[in-house]
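I would like you to sit down with the pair of lines that follows and say whether tokens and residues agree.
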Amino acid sequence: MNYIELNVKTLAVTPLSEILIVELGEIGFESFVENEEGFLAYIQENEFDEKKIVELQIIKTNPSIFTYTFQIVEDENWNAIWESNYEPVVIKNKCGIRAPFHPENKDVEYDLIIEPKMSFGTAHHETTSNMIEFLLEEDLKGKSVLDMGCGTSVLAILAAKRGSSKVFAIDNDEWAYNNSLENILKNNEPEINVILGDANSLTNLYFDVIIANINRNILLNDIKFYANSLNDNGILLMSGFYEQDIPAIKEECGKYNLNFDRYISKNNWVAIRFLK
């Protein structure tokens, strides 16, 4: 599967760039890599429509701030791109995320290996980092966990490392599915169940903890599925949206007996915790 790489150069202050990233995510862009001039964004070639970019509100209202070019990235070129941008990440001095070509980090409790491919979830982005912080605080021992929209399955792998009794990882992207299978083996967690699918795959599956790091619109659509699959007294952790999206998320969760607890915010990106 080929991807389109969108190279965005910007003169904008950070909030405007972040708004553009959110709007790109809403039209199908899956992964983002920041650089000194702006950022790179990636979308499956068959999902790319330049007209949708031109029509984005942030682009239309700020025509002099953003410029972009795009090119096709073939499968075999992706690792080289990631290796040139990819650096190890450490969260709360407890969890390290690195690629196989980085040395082992013996200074952290959880040293996770993530093969740097197209899948979203390397902890470079605030949403994944925030979710890892939540997972490091949760008592997961003996609990069943779902990583919904798993990307690389970095969150599922961390849940397994922290003693979860059963872990499922679900993503509707074939690239993410295959990357997840690779990563769970690299981290010696072959018992993680990886499923190629979406929220409709949750029929007759029930969990103590559900993790969903996706985007605002998908979350709002799928919260009802999460609520149905969450055991009583269960925990729902969600990320992939901004602080200004919290009221909409809380309103939708309230329809399904999901009670707001607290949230983490980093550069306006939010991870939020609900209890059933």
